[in-house]
């Protein structure tokens, strides 16, 4: 349970309404009719009066309060009514009887958690097995050990939380103390700096004053270095307005304002009535009798009979002024036809003036009797209220009466009562001293037992903390070992995968080299076969051409014109027409195959783009350096393509 802290009741603060209320007095007025409230003071520097918005006046205003209770009758804690517990029932709310106002009430989050833990513990106690046999006893003991271990863990958590809170509070206090100390140091430094600055200014002012006086003395000495006696030059002094004649120095003993009365003008023409009359008679006539001449008409035209600019402006202003006056004198304009419906405000009818009905003398007597009866009832009510107040404040009256002088009998009775009271007080003091001694012995025994128990618990708590810390270190070491094993296995797998990739690359490179050598040898063999066949074909063609040439010369010598034409026609029919038919058939086949070629090209390009993208995303393998065999193979492939074209 938290420590009980008595809060400030704030009787004169925000909780004032709990201790005071208005007195219930009939015909009580808040303020007499002859009371006038003081007006608000205005600022002496507010020379210009500014209209202010009138403040809103409340209908009800509190002028004062008066208590109806004494301090001993004041209730500060909430009231707890009496209760009766039925037989064979244990209400749950009775488990909260230890909570009081200021110590757990009103309930907060900690109290709610405590209540929930108490409920869980009661539910757990209900589930404990009975002590009927050994197996149930062992099970019960195991459950109780588990619960005790949980409670120790919870208490450890609570202790850690309290330690953290205390640490935070300690940090805040240290920070506050440091800030206060820094502020005090800064204030001390500022005060010291200000003091030193003031001393510095004083010293500087003294030094300046000494410097000025020294310079002045040196200048005075410099004017008469030889030390000759000089006469006073009155003319130069009166010509120099900075001399001692016009501005004497007070440090030389001259005070110009000491005889200022002699500079006051004293003239009989201004101080006496006869002098004023004589002064008025000596003045000329135009001073006392002014002459007024009629003003000449203002010229508004120039020599060329044109209006001046100022005259034109005056005429325009007069026209505008006249237009404004005409508009002002003009009557109200007729109302325009309304395009929309407008609400017409109907003024409320004036109430009729009440008239006083004249009643007869009998009714007046009855009314006076009723008024008198009301006065009697009101007086009786006030008497009853005074009697109730006297009964309620009887203790206060008795207390006040004890302070006054009592009669002889009353004093004797009071003396006897005082002796009896003192005897009872002595007995009570003896009893309290005896009980205090017993409580001190019991407290010492309890403190010794509690000290040993807390010592044992603290040692057990330290042992448990160390045990848990060691277990946590072991768990961390095991976790670190597993993490390192996982990292090592991952590196081993990556290394094996890289080794397999390098082996495959080496196999592919060797296979490519073998295929390159084979294709190179095949190309060499094919080229040699082609060159040999070409040479043999050229020799045979030359032989056949020679034979054909000889035969042609013989036939040319023997043939006629008709045979020549027949030969030409046969050549045209056997060479030109078949060539044209061949080119036409090739073009037709090419047009038929073009759409298939385009479709194949699209498929090839799409697959090639996918492969390129994949190769760009994946790391490129190392390329094999170009050798002389590769260059030779490329040249042979180019020659082969040229021959095929």
Automatic annotation (TrEMBL):
Domain CFAP91, first and last residues per copy: 65-217
UniProt xrefs under InterPro entries: CFAP91, CFAP91_dom
Predominant localisation class: cytoplasm
Locations listed in the record: Cytoplasm, Cytoskeleton, Cilium axoneme
Keywords: Cell projection, Cilium, Cytoplasm, Cytoskeleton, Flagellum
Short name of one Pfam family: CFAP91
Cellular component, GO annotation: axoneme
PANTHER family in the cross-refs: CILIA- AND FLAGELLA-ASSOCIATED PROTEIN 91
Family: Belongs to the CFAP91 family.
Name of the protein: Cilia- and flagella-associated protein 91
Organism placement in taxonomy: Eukaryota, Metazoa, Chordata, Craniata, Vertebrata
